[in-house]
Specification:
mainly alpha; 0% strand; rod-shaped; membrane; Flp_Fap; Flp family type IVb pilin; transmembrane
Length: 59
């Protein structure tokens, strides 16, 4: 019985997998934020690129 208890304690104390999960969550949140920002700025970015293309064509 003591061996099982010791194994459970070691499993709970092991934090190697937790760090990887945290980094994964942070990366996914950054990705969601970038996608949201791109969606909000999409029309303005498209307008800017259209102006640049028009200016280059007129030269």
């Amino acid at each position: 019985m003591k061996t099982i208890f010791t194994a459970v304690q070691a499993f709970i104390a092991d934090e190697n997998g937790v760090t990887a999960i945290e980094y994964g969550l942070i990366a996914s949140l950054v990705g969601v934020a970038m996608a949201g920002a791109a969606k909000l700025l999409g029309i303005e970015i498209q307008t800017t690129f259209d102006k640049v293309v028009t200016a280059l064509k007129n030269q």
